[in-house]
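Today's session is about reading a structure prediction critically. Students often jump straight to the picture, but the first step is always the sequence itself: look for stretches that repeat, for charged clusters, for runs of hydrophobic residues. Only then move on to the predicted structure, which in these notes is written as discrete structure tokens rather than atom positions. Here is the chain we will use throughout the hour.
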Amino acid sequence: MDLVSIRIITGDVARLVGFYERATGVRAEWATEDFAELRTTGGTLAIAGTRTVALFAAGSARPAENHSVITEFRVDDVDRVHENLRGFLGEVVAGPTTMPWGNRSLLFRDPDGNLVNFFTPVTAAAVAKFAR
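Below is the predicted structure for this chain, in token form.
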């Protein structure tokens, strides 16, 4: 089994896709006006409009109500990324901080309030973990 993607349901697909394109530097691939994907080497972030929810199960997902999931992206230099995004990011929850497990992390919220973590492995153990 492979984890293929994480999907965010939103009330404004174009706004959220634009945010993630700017924040990640990855261009989205649009399938319809209600669905786009940002593909990276490690996985895909899918962004879908509320109209797509009924295709699975009406009412099963609601936009802007996430309080438990953090979407994470590994970046080459989290401090440089933070500097480049200064003034663009709305709510920065925690500026670049080195975590006990060896990643230097920047935690912020996307326009729908979802938590996003950009991180860079900085200790030998963290670097080795991602070298596999």
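Discussion point for the tutorial: The first helix runs from residue 13 to 24.
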